[in-house]
Each structure stands twice: as structure tokens, then as C-alpha cells.
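sry for the spam today, last one i promise. C-alpha cells for design, 494 residues
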């Protein structure tokens, strides 16, 4: 009797062991699959130095092509008509208006020349009522103009408009514009949720000027720019060695100072000497050297603008979290990363926003507590193993570092175009002003941009190159450009 019981226990134990072994085998296979997805991602995203050099070379080549002829490259290399950046001598009160998202900002600044610099600055942020974003153009421009009129009316005594002068405004309008002079340009199309048909093809400065007149506000729109050019202007005012600006935020773009005689497509426009700021629209860059994965291809194909903004889709804040989501979804489907069922929320596009990604990526706790908490918040996954959390961090690391490396390669391309990528005997400094939430807040990303650029340039050259955070420089930059292009400029210089 006792023997039979012992045999039964032994048999049950054997079954238990077999089940355990099977489960362990299944687990091992699962992790093996997840690791394989990760390894493949790592391979495809790899951006070794040689590859980054090819990307930088391609950027410089495309810059040349875009400057040579209209439509000569995916890089539009738009002539901004900004032929004077702030020198620091600017004096007087100037205004800026920044429209490019759900909020717009107004700003005034009292400039005191070389000695006084920025004497006083004030700004206001106003959110645009949603119905105006899809209504008529007069309604939108009237709302903006009346907000500006209120802002002007609230002006204190610290701001002095010189006797007999008209107020002047720099207008930062971050939508696609075909620029026709420093203070005119026609809207190509609205983006970012705006949709006002009748404005397309119209001169935006004329539209705004008419609205200002309707409000009884006597103000001249002196400069029409975008946020990247504003950042360049603000950066230059702070540091005379700034030659380019890069935006790394929701989207990405770059602008830099070119010699006017190095712009062949500028054949019928004068003057051909001096400097000209070029708005690269570099988000649209593409090259066979860019390390693309199946995830990038799917993201692009399902996007609102397939085939466009390929570089932007690899490096900007709008997309990084979404790339991570796509990788994790594959791991969930093929390797049950989050258990037997794929979390339904993981199937929702753009649910992993880049700030969440950076919080997970930067988690320094030994048990990756933040990663666990975020996965719960975002995806509703109740509990995760440490191994799963580590894999999530690895995915973030690969995606963020590829982005940072490619951004650095782009900057290297600009330096190359300007001949600043080689040692210069007089140790001339070169400064790049960078703005945008991605660069400002995603520490690992920002550090990687800098270290990659240093690595690409070598020690001697990097000692002369500075990347400088130019936080919110574009607001004041627009006012500074209004000053630098003021209607009273020549009178003053005489
Ligand atoms: P915009 O580019 O829309 O003008 P910002 O320059 O402020 O605005 O950048 C905002 C973008 O920066 C967000 O869309 C997001 O992608 C990114 N971002 C903001 N905060 C963080 C963060 N903590 N970590 C990573 N990315 C961030
Ligand atoms: Mg911005």
C-alpha cells in the first residue's frame, strides 16, 4: 500500500517536473524571440561612424543641389530674404507674433543697442479657440490682430516708441510658405490642424496687415520668418559666432547663414553679395544611407504624408515614441512580451509619446520602477517582469540613439558645406543654436548628439564647435529681425 502511494507521488512529481521543464522551455523560446527582434532592430538601426559620414556627405551634397536649382533636391533650401542678422546695435521697441500651433504668442522688447541690450521684454500667450482653426481667414486674423491690439494697449511706460515712428513686428509663421521678400510670402497649405481654404495662395503678411488695420492698429509687419530662423536670429544676438540653428522638438528643421554668391538658383534676385539665411527644411532629407527598418517603413506608409519628411520621422519628438510602440507591438505579438495577450492599448498609434519614452529610458532605479509604472499608465499592463522592463529600455535606447546620431550627422553636413569641419588655423569658433523640447528635455538624446558630433569631428575641430541650447530664442528672434530689417534701418545707418 505504502509502495503504491510512493509510486503515485513519484509519478506526480515527474509530471510536475515535466510541466515545469516545458514551461521553462516555452519561456526560453519566448525570450529568445524577443531577443531576436531586439538584435535585428539593433543591427538595422546601427549607425557606425562610417555610415554617419555617408549621411553627412549626402546632406552636404543635397544642400548644394537644393541651392543650385529650384526642385533640385528633397531639401528645399528656401531663400529667407533675411540678409541681416541682429548685430547687437538694435535700438527701440519691437514686437513679435508667433503662430505655429494651438497657442500663439505676442512679445515686445525694448532694445538698448550695444550697451543696453535687452532692456525689457514682455510676452503673452493666447490659445486659439478651436473653431477659428477651421473657420474663415478673416476671423482667425482678426482674432490675432485684436489680441495684439490688446497687448499693445497694455504697454507700460518702460517701452518707448520713438517719436513719429510706426510700430514694427516680426511675424513667426511656422507653416509652409513660399517666401517672396523679407515681408511677404504666400501660404502653400495649412498644417497642424489648421484648415482655412481661402488663405492658401494668399500673401500672409497682406492678410495680417489688413486685419491690423481693421483693428485700428498702426503696425508694420517688417519680417516674415519661421521658428528656425527666429532661433538663428536670437542665437546670433546672444553670440556672434552662431552660424546655424537646429530645431529638435515635435518636428525638426535647420537654417544657416550662406554666402549669397554660393546660391546659384538665386540668379534673378539681387544682391549677390553678403550673406543670406537659408531655411533648409531638412526634415524632408532622405538618403539611401539612412538606416531604415520595417518599423519606419510602416510608420511612413501609414502617415498623413507618406514618402515625405523621412529624416524628420527618424529623429523628431513626434515620432520617436511611435517607433518604440511599433517595436514593442511586434515583441508583444511574436514573443508575448506583456503576457499571453497583446495589451489592446499597444495597438493605438502614437499612444507612447516621446516624453514617456524618455522617462522610461532615463529610469535609473535598480528595478526600473518608472518603466513599470509608465507601462501600467500608458498600456494598462498590470505587472511586468524586470526582464521585460529591461527590454523596453533597450528598445528606447536603440531608437533614441539612432535619432541622435542622425541629427549629429546632419549638423556635420552643414559644417562640411561651410568648410567648418576641418581644422582652421585661427581657431575660429563655430556655434550652432539648438532649440526644441526633445533636445532640451531628453538628456540621453542631447548628450548623444554632442558626443557623436565630437566623435565625427575629432578632437581638434570639436574644440572650436559649440552646440548651444537657445531656449525660446525664436520669439525674441522675430522681434530682433524686425529691428534688423526695420524701415528706419538705413536712415539710422547714414
Ligand atoms: P514644438 O516643437 O511643438 O514647437 P517644443 O519645442 O516645446 O514644441 O517641443 C515639444 C516636443 O518635444 C514634444 O512634442 C515632445 O516630442 C518633445 N518633448 C517634450 N518634453 C520631452 C521630454 N521630457 N522628453 C522627450 N521629449 C520631449
Ligand atoms: Mg517650437
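last one done:
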Amino acid at each position: 500500500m505504502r509502495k503504491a502511494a510512493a509510486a503515485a507521488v513519484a509519478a506526480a512529481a515527474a509530471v510536475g517536473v515535466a510541466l515545469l521543464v516545458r514551461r521553462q522551455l516555452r519561456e526560453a523560446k519566448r525570450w529568445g524571440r524577443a531577443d531576436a527582434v531586439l538584435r535585428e532592430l539593433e543591427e538595422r538601426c546601427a549607425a557606425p561612424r562610417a555610415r554617419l559620414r555617408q549621411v553627412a556627405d549626402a546632406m552636404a551634397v543635397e544642400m548644394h543641389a537644393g541651392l543650385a536649382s529650384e526642385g533640385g533636391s528633397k531639401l528645399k533650401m528656401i531663400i529667407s530674404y533675411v540678409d541681416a542678422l541682429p548685430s547687437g546695435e538694435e535700438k527701440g521697441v519691437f514686437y513679435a507674433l508667433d503662430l505655429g500651433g494651438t497657442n500663439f504668442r505676442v512679445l515686445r522688447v525694448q532694445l538698448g543697442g550695444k550697451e543696453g541690450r535687452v532692456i525689457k521684454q514682455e510676452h503673452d500667450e493666447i490659445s486659439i479657440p478651436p473653431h477659428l482653426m477651421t473657420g474663415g481667414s478673416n476671423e482667425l486674423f482678426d482674432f490675432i490682430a485684436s489680441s495684439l491690439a490688446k497687448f499693445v494697449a497694455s504697454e507700460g511706460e518702460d517701452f518707448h516708441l520713438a517719436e513719429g515712428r510706426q510700430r514694427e513686428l516680426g511675424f513667426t509663421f511656422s507653416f509652409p510658405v513660399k517666401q517672396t521678400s523679407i515681408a511677404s510670402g504666400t501660404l502653400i497649405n495649412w498644417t497642424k490642424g489648421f484648415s482655412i481654404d481661402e488663405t492658401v495662395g494668399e500673401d500672409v503678411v497682406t492678410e495680417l496687415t489688413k486685419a491690423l488695420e481693421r483693428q485700428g492698429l498702426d503696425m508694420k509687419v517688417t519680417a516674415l520668418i519661421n521658428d528656425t530662423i527666429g532661433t538663428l536670429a536670437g542665437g546670433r544676438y546672444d553670440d556672434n559666432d552662431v552660424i546655424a540653428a537646429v530645431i529638435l522638438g515635435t518636428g525638426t528643421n535647420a537654417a544657416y547663414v550662406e554666402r549669397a554668391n554660393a546660391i546659384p538658383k538665386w540668379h534673378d534676385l539681387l544682391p549677390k553679395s553678403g550673406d543670406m539665411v537659408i531655411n533648409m527644411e531638412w526634415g524632408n532629407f532622405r538618403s539611401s544611407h539612412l538606416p531604415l527598418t520595417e518599423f519606419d517603413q510602416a510608420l511612413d506608409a501609414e502617415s498623413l504624408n507618406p514618402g515625405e519628411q523621412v529624416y524628420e520621422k527618424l529623429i523628431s519628438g513626434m515620432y520617436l515614441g511611435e517607433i518604440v510602440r511599433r517595436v514593442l507591438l511586434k515583441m508583444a505579438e511574436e514573443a508575448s512580451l506583456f503576457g499571453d495577450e497583446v495589451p489592446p492599448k499597444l495597438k493605438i498609434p502614437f499612444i507612447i509619446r516621446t516624453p514617456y519614452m524618455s522617462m522610461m529610458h532615463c529610469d535609473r532605479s535598480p528595478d526600473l520602477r518608472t518603466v513599470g509604472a509608465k507601462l501600467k499608465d500608458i498600456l494598462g499592463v498590470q505587472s511586468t517582469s524586470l526582464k521585460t522592463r529591461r527590454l523596453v529600455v533597450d528598445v528606447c535606447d536603440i531608437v533614441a540613439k539612432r535619432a541622435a546620431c542622425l541629427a549629429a550627422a546632419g549638423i556635420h553636413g552643414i559644417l562640411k558645406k561651410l568648410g567648418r569641419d576641418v581644422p582652421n588655423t585661427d581657431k575660429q569658433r563655430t556655434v550652432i543654436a539648438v532649440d526644441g523640447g526633445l533636445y532640451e528635455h531628453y538628456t540621453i538624446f542631447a548628450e548623444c548628439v554632442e558626443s557623436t558630433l565630437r566623435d565625427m569631428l575629432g578632437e581638434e575641430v570639436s574644440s572650436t564647435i559649440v552646440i548651444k541650447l537657445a531656449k525660446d530664442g525664436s520669439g525674441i528672434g522675430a522681434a530682433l529681425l524686425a529691428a534688423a530689417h526695420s524701415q528706419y534701418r538705413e536712415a539710422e545707418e547714414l
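The radius of gyration is 27 Å. ok im logging off now
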